[in-house]
UniProtKB/TrEMBL annotation:
The keyword Oxidoreductase does not apply. This is FUSC family protein. The keyword Cell inner membrane does not apply. It is a multi-pass membrane protein.
Length: 689
């Protein structure tokens, strides 16, 4: 029994390992080479801590060149801001130790607050500005006249590492973010086609849920790559807007496909041909090799399907509410075709960018970007309090090695504060650090004292750092591997003479490990993070967006709403993606809210149509006011108000009056909103807490 379990465990572990690809090897060798170059130059310039140059290379190392440049750029800004803050704080308060550490802790709290409100890589730069001041300020404790020299040296080492990492990533077999975006978008389109094919044919629910989750996650990755690519090359600037707009349209298409799957259409003469054509198109798109090399045939077919779906079926074939149901599903099918068409055009825009000028009459959306101020305040208080408490212990006990503990607490409590699960991320960082300890001891305390010289140093470091860099290229191990690489160099301290002296080695190592553990303890005990609270705040912001669409005088463009709706889903995804069915329901509601918002826009635009009777315009306005009240005030678990019933009643009344095409489109929008809110009742209601 025991042997069988061990065998199963090792087989499972080995199954999780993947063979390094050619790209992984290029990344690993390029990163190690850049690190060694940075170290050599640091030695040549006689910098005080040359290992920081090499460590910086591994800190900013990313498989994609634009990601390296973005992280390096904001690391540089953060280091400069932290250095200036350290000089100012130490100069003003350096004579009073308790005041000095208090002000540094407050500075770390402020930077953590700002970092929690931003996104990567900007958030990384803000957090770095906080703990860099601590890294520079504490060594100058009692010697404030040295702080300027320490700040300059620190900035020089960081700049050297960034330059080496940036140049090698851009010049040596580069993997560009702009190319990666196009490749990722192609995969998203093919996955969307696969999902839609399964949805239109009534495919397996579990498979469709997995594809749905993957597509939402990939939109998040696309958004991150967009930010990186803008720093990679100025030529990408015209393509930044199409990326954001295309992501929003990708979500619209996904939402429409999900709606058609959730509300299987009755078998009627009007709907079957459209649905069959869509299923044939997406199935062919997903299966045909090189299908996206030329989008023009697909665009023509989608245009034809969209036009056919927009045609109002003959009243003699569909009557009463069933007719509205048919038109509703036809509208969703047309929306899917139109959204997929725009996604394909977005792909073409990325491959052949054109200059884009904003017209003088363009209006900004009447929507706001969500900032989680309560979460940011919690993170700031936690980081400042943890840093201050450990600093107080250091000042009270006079233990010299505790300075390293203070710095690590500041780093971890600030850097990982905004993660959905900071304890898990910090624990991964601790495991990587602990794993680096024996390797650093064997190389620095055993091997190099016996075999001195830079040649031997390079041999040992390369043998260890290449596998570490290969692990960094694997998303599954990137956190632990990065912590290993950074702390291996920190433990090794190559600026020092390599002699056997285990006492200081273990004392310094212990302070680092204790600092990480203390930061983890702070994450667990002090204002513990609850991802669901942050998720609820984002969901509330999404409901407020919809209410604003209902009531605000100024309407955003469709593309602007889609972009901001994507932004909300992008923030929601990491908080709930590992939460089982509850998380799936929240994500599903988030994507469905895109559909609801688009139908609200359609109703608002229809009410401005002079061909619509005034009594219908008034009915739309009354419905939207009721919908806004539902979104803002109904608590989760409470019975639904009359809003959904009113929507269905209005839709049925329109059909009974044998309305025109415009009126039936209004009825379809009402039915779509009602169906989406019935599918995710808790999403469209505020939490009772």
């Amino acid at each position: 029994m025991t042997w069988a379990r061990l065998k199963t465990y090792f087989e499972t572990s080995l199954a999780g390992l993947t063979q390094p690809t050619r790209s992984d090897w290029i990344f690993a060798l390029r990163t190690v080479s850049a690190g060694m170059i940075a170290l050599l130059v640091a030695y040549a310039l006689k910098l005080d801590h040359p290992q920081w140059a090499m460590m910086t290379v591994f800190i900013v190392a990313q498989p994609v060149a634009g990601m390296v440049l973005a992280k390096g750029f904001y690391r540089l800004l953060g280091t400069l801001a932290g250095g200036i803050a350290a000089v100012g704080i130490t100069t003003a308060f350096g004579t009073g130790p308790w005041i000095l550490v208090t002000v540094l802790a407050v500075w770390i709290g402020i930077c953590t607050f700002v970092s929690s409100l931003l996104r990567n890589p900007e958030a990384y730069g803000a957090a770095l500005a906080g703990y860099t001041a601590m890294i520079i300020g504490l060594p100058a404790f009692g010697q404030p006249h040295l702080v300027v020299d320490l700040a300059v040296a620190r900035c020089a080492e960081i700049v050297l590492g960034i330059v080496c990492a940036g140049l090698t990533s851009r010049l040596i077999l580069p993997k560009l973010a702009s190319d990666a975006i196009i490749s990722r978008l192609k995969r998203c389109i093919l996955d969307l086609a696969t999902y839609a094919g399964g949805a239109f044919s009534g495919g397996d629910r579990a498979t469709l849920i997995g594809l749905h989750r993957k597509l939402v996650a990939d939109t998040q990755t696309l958004g991150e790559m967009r930010a990186y690519a803008r720093l990679e090359a100025a030529s990408f600037a015209p393509r930044a807007h199409p990326v954001r707009r295309t992501i929003g349209q990708l979500l619209s298409a996904l939402s429409a496909a999900r709606a058609l799957y959730s509300h299987a259409a009755p078998k009627n003469a009007a709907l079957i041909p459209v649905r069959s054509e869509l299923q044939a198109l997406v199935s062919e798109l997903a299966a045909k090799p090189g299908a996206l090399d030329d989008t023009s045939p697909w665009l023509a077919r989608l245009d034809a399907i969209s036009i056919r779906a927009r045609q109002i079926p003959d009243a003699s074939t569909e009557q009463g509410e069933d007719r509205v149901g048919t038109i509703t599903r036809l509208t969703i099918a047309a929306d899917f075709a139109e959204a997929l068409k725009q996604v394909l055009r977005g792909l073409d825009a990325l491959r052949a960018p054109v200059s884009r000028r904003r017209g003088p009459g363009s209006r900004q959306p009447a929507l706001v970007v969500h900032r989680d101020y309560p979460g940011a305040a919690r993170n700031a208080i936690r980081a400042a309090l943890a840093t201050l408490l450990v600093a107080a212990f250091w000042l009270t006990t006079k233990w010299s090695e505790a300075a390293g503990t203070v710095i690590l607490v500041a780093v971890v409590s600030s850097l990982f504060a905004a993660r959905p699960d900071p304890v898990q991320v910090s624990w991964g960082f601790f495991k990587g650090t602990l794993l680096a300890l024996p390797f650093a001891f064997l190389v620095g305390q055993i091997a190099l004292p016996a075999l001195p010289g830079f040649g031997w140093f390079m041999l040992f470091v390369v043998l260890i750092m290449v596998p570490a860099a290969l692990a960094m290229a694997n998303p599954r191990y990137v956190g632990v591997a990065t912590a290993f690489a950074i702390n291996f160099l920190a433990f090794l301290s190559p600026h020092q003479a390599m002699t056997y002296d285990p006492g200081p080695f273990f004392a310094g190592s212990a302070s680092i490990l204790v600092g990480i553990l203390l930061a983890i303890g702070v994450f667990i005990v002090v204002f513990p993070a609850d991802p669901w609270l942050a998720a609820d705040r984002i969901v509330r912001a999404m409901r407020e967006d919809l209410a604003r669409l209902c009531l605000h005088e100024r309407l955003p463009r469709r593309s602007a709403f889609e972009s901001l709706a994507y932004d909300r889903v992008n923030q929601l995804m990491p908080l709930v993606q590992n939460s089982g069915r509850k998380g799936e329901a929240v994500l599903g509601g988030g994507v469905a809210s895109v559909t609801v918002g688009l139908e609200i826009l359609r109703l608002r635009n229809a009410s401005q149509n002079h061909a619509i009777p005034s009594e219908m315009t008034l009915s739309i306005a009354n419905f939207l006011r009721g919908l806004a009240r539902e979104l803002l005030f109904r608590a989760s678990g409470d019975p639904q108000t009359a809003t959904i019933a009113v929507a269905r009643q209005y839709a049925a009344g329109i059909a009974q009056r044998d309305a025109t095409g415009d009126m039936l489109q209004i009825a379809a929008s009402l039915r779509i909103i009602a169906a989406a809110m019935e599918d995710f009742p808790d999403f469209f209601a505020r939490d009772k807490t």
